[in-house]
Amino acid sequence: MEGITFDKNTISCIAFFQRMTRARVKDCIDTDDKVIFIVETGDLGMAVGKKGEIAQKLRRMMKKDILIVEHSDDPWTFIANVFHQFKVQGVEVEDRPIGTHATVKVDPSLKGKAIGRDGNNLRLARRIVRRHHPIDILDRLAPNRTGMGEDEAWEQLMRSFENTMSYVAFFQRMTHARVKDCIDTDDKVIFIVEPGYLGMAVGKKGEIAQKLRRMMKKDILIVEHSDDPGTFIANLFHQFKVQGVEVEDRPIGTHATVKVDPSLKGKAIGRDGNNLRLARRIVRRHHPIDSISVD
Predict the structure, then answer these.
(1) What is the number of H-type helices and E-type strands within the chain?
(2) DSSP labels for 199-216?
(3) Which residue of 26, 38, 122, 273 has the smallest Cβ count within 10 Å?
(4) Is 251 strand, coil or helix?
């Protein structure tokens, strides 16, 4: 997710919009030819008006096109709301090695408009979504690159989802710790537990974690969540004796540098950078960190 900041012009747009509609604005993006208002859940009807009358009036008064989107804490719903005018038929969100990917299926006759000239609408949609959800890539529904039919691909996705949910249920039953997130890879399952539950999940001298590894026949990693990105990253690299985490804004995005015990740096990065790639994937699901390096 990206950090949200407003300039004076955007703040003025928000104030005007809220005064005219009485809808609560959660976010606003002002582009050269369009203003996008993200309204709180339940306020869309108030913002648009009967038969879109208020929205039309706002366009005339602002002398600019506007897009009004209802927010949702659920990424599937929010993405569908962003593409609503293109008659969304489904949204698929999946974890890929390069990050979390969302594919939107729209009415075939409106696919070109959904993408926009030179991909402008799609780029804008990515920008909107990434301000609110940890979605790395957003794309329209394209031909399946796996060689499977669409139904088969969906079945595989659901099997993966069901498998992950089974792991979560099993983990919580065995540890009584609350799980915030779970990522299932080929050789490892990562459990992100709520703050304060790490001890309960790991057990005295790691006994519970070891038992879980034997029972699941798979390596596991248990990480305590934190709303502070630096703390969360330190928790993620804990086994490598973290000496410090620096988070900084760079021209290409927000970057985190993790300083670990020099003797463990290679293990922290992993063979062919696998551990570092996985760490980036985990962090980006919870914090607006674009890149991570190990020092």
Answers:
(1) 12, 12
(2) HHHH-GGGHHHHHHHHHH
(3) 273
(4) coil
Q: Are strands 25-30 and 34-39 parallel, antiparallel or unpaired?
A: antiparallel
Residue 150: in which H helix or E strand, if any? helix 150-175
* Backbone φ and ψ of 294, nearest 5°: -110, 130
Q: Which residue ranges form the domains of the chain, and what is each CATH number?
A: 1-71 (3.30.300.20), 74-142 (3.30.300.20), 162-294 (3.30.300.20)
CB 111 within 8 A of CB 75: no
* pLDDT value for 72: 93
Backbone angles phi, psi at 255, to 5 degrees: -120, 140
Q: Which residues neighbour 72 within 8 Å (Cβ) at sequence distance 6 or greater?
A: 41, 78, 81
> pLDDT tens digits for 235-284?
999 999 999 999 998 776 789 999 999 999 999 999 888 899 899 989 98
Nearest to 92 by CA among 146, 165, 141: 141
Report, as an integer, the average pLDDT of 87-107: 79
The residue type found at 17 is F
Contact 204, 210 (CB under 8 A): no
- The DSSP call for residue 73 is S
- Burial 65-101, CB ≥16 within 10 A → b, else e: ebbbbbbbeebbebbbbbbeebebeebbbebeeeebe
